[in-house]
Amino acid sequence: MRRELPGGYELDDDRGRVDRAAVHRFIAEDSYWAQGRTRERMDELIGSAARVVGLYHAGAQTGFSRTVDVPDANLVYLADFYVLPEHRGGGRGGELVRFTTDEGPLAARGWN
To answer: What is the pTM of this model?
Structure first.
């Protein structure tokens, strides 16, 4: 599922399109919640996610969200969400959250 945003941005939940190196770089180096996470672990988390969504501009990954589904706990949550600093503003982060939560296969499950 894809959606275009103003200014040449695009949201896409194609797991194969995710720039895993770029996601790992941000999460492991710039995030406050997972600094030092290994590339192998990041690849595992992307692979096992219920849904991943990328924010792209001019073909480059500029944001990311990973959705975790814990069916036994009736819980769905958003993890590893970011928009690169130079692409913040203009509501793109909000659009990424809305696209992740309101559209796609988990929308009917409810979010905690």
So the answer is: 0.91
